[in-house]
TrEMBL record:
The UniProt record lists the keyword tRNA processing: no
Family in the record: Belongs to the glycosyltransferase 9 family.
Catalytic activity: an L-alpha-D-Hep-(1->5)-[alpha-Kdo-(2->4)]-alpha-Kdo-(2->6)-lipid A + ADP-L-glycero-beta-D-manno-heptose = an L-alpha-D-Hep-(1->3)-L-alpha-D-Hep-(1->5)-[alpha-Kdo-(2->4)]-alpha-Kdo-(2->6)-lipid A + ADP + H(+)
Keywords of the record: Glycosyltransferase, Transferase
Protein name listed in UniProt: lipopolysaccharide heptosyltransferase II
UniProt xrefs under CDD domains: GT9_LPS_heptosyltransferase (cd03789)
Top enzyme class: transferase
One GO MF term attached to the UniProt entry: glycosyltransferase activity
Entry-linked Gene3D superfamilies: Glycogen Phosphorylase B (3.40.50.2000)
Enzyme nomenclature, EC number: 2.4.99.24
Pfam families the UniProt entry points to: Glyco_transf_9 (PF01075)
Presence of the UniProt keyword Glycosyltransferase in the record: yes
Length: 355
């Protein structure tokens, strides 16, 4: 999507936020927008985001307009960035917050002539970023990492300040939810529980499909009226098909690859509870304040936890975790395999509505 030509320099100054490329990171960057809006209540905030991530930003109240990047993934495309920057220049941005750490995205606000350009050090970005932040060691949790850009570089973020940060927040309208439920044949009068068996990062982050199936059977045994939606991208179709094959009877909807991200967001908003690996859909559920059970194996639950009022972050915290590897380097994936359906059911059951 090209910038709106009706918005020109000379009107109210605007803020540009350049989105991360990952869905979960975009969600966890949302508190930064809350802080920017509090600092400048009248200043519109535009977000420049990849098409795959833009539906997330459209569900955030602080965003005035979402602009979709026209660039190919991984390509510098210097001429195309220069042309796009000329369009952005007309919108009269007072500042830009560059959330990806690459030089490619730091080029855009510099080429657009935006005077204040805020971001982390990243790759070869001196001059392109002129309000330069540096991360702490060990790295801050993701919400605090992005929220720090709203303050002066090197500002202290002690535990009390981090605890006081706003939580990621998204909202979905009732009509949007009703339309998506109808489109996929889901009964709004019956409870819906969403499972997210996928994880874009790699197989090590995925709870076994047989475990998801075992949890589904426990749900259906408790209340046969429960509907279960399996959500994910086309890449998650094999994992979700394996889950579905392990569930006998019941209203199970395998929707992996069959919904847009916007539809998946609406289905999560309609859910009584969500069970998810450490993934973008987990963080969407958290930002929608759904009851959520988050499953962590090779990643650190303290680095990117759920923020729902009712949430359980489950990790066995084995000696080999968090290894942060895409595939288990030891070949056994004990961090997920030994996290049994019974353990997850113990956390999920109290979150469910009485049947």
């Amino acid at each position: 999507m090209l910038p709106d030509k009706n918005v020109t320099a000379g009107s109210v100054p605007r803020t540009l936020v350049i989105s991360p490329n990952w869905i979960g990171d975009a969600v966890m960057a949302q508190p930064l927008l809350q802080l920017l809006r509090a600092a400048h209540p009248q200043r519109p905030i535009d977000v420049l985001a990849p098409p795959a991530v833009s539906p997330v930003w459209r569900q955030m109240a602080e965003v005035d307009q979402v602009l979709e990047t026209p660039f190919r993934h991984g390509a510098l495309q210097l001429r195309e960035r220069w042309k796009y920057a000329r369009l952005l220049r007309r919108r009269g941005y007072a500042d830009a917050y560059v959330l990806p750490n690459t030089i490619k995205y730091a080029l855009i606000p510099w080429l657009a002539g935006i005077k204040r350009r805020v971001g982390y050090k990243g790759e070869s970005r001196h001059g392109l970023i002129n309000v330069m932040h540096h991360d702490e060691t060990p790295p801050r949790p993701m919400v605090a990492f992005y929220a720090a850009l709203a303050t002066a570089p090197q500002a202290l973020q002690d535990a009390a300040r981090r605890a006081a940060l706003p939580k990621p927040r998204m909202a979905v309208g009732a009509q949007q939810i009703a339309e998506v439920l109808r489109r996929h044949g889901i009964d709004p009068a019956r409870p819906l529980v969403a499972f997210a068996p996928g994880a874009e990062f790699g197989g090590a982050k995925r709870w076994p499909a047989a475990h998801f199936a075992g949890l589904a059977q426990a749900l259906l045994a408790r209340d046969g009226a429960t509907q279960i939606a399996l959500l994910g991208s086309p890449k998650d179709q094999p994992a979700c098909a394996e889950v579905a094959a392990g569930v006998a009877g019941g209203a199970l909807f395998n929707l992996a690859g069959s919904t847009s991200l916007a539809e998946a967001i609406a289905l999560i908003a309609a859910s009584a509870a969500v069970v998810a690996n450490d993934s973008g859909l987990l963080h969407i559920a958290s930002a929608l304040n759904r009851p959520v059970v988050a499953l962590y194996g090779p990643t650190d639950p303290d680095h990117a936890p759920p923020f729902s009022d009712m949430a359980a972050a489950l990790s066995l915290r084995l000696a080999c975790a968090p290894c942060k590897q895409r595939e288990c380097p030891l070949g056994h994936q004990d961090c997920m395999v030994k996290l049994t359906p019974e353990l997850v059911w113990r956390s999920l059951q109290p979150m469910l509505p009485l049947g």
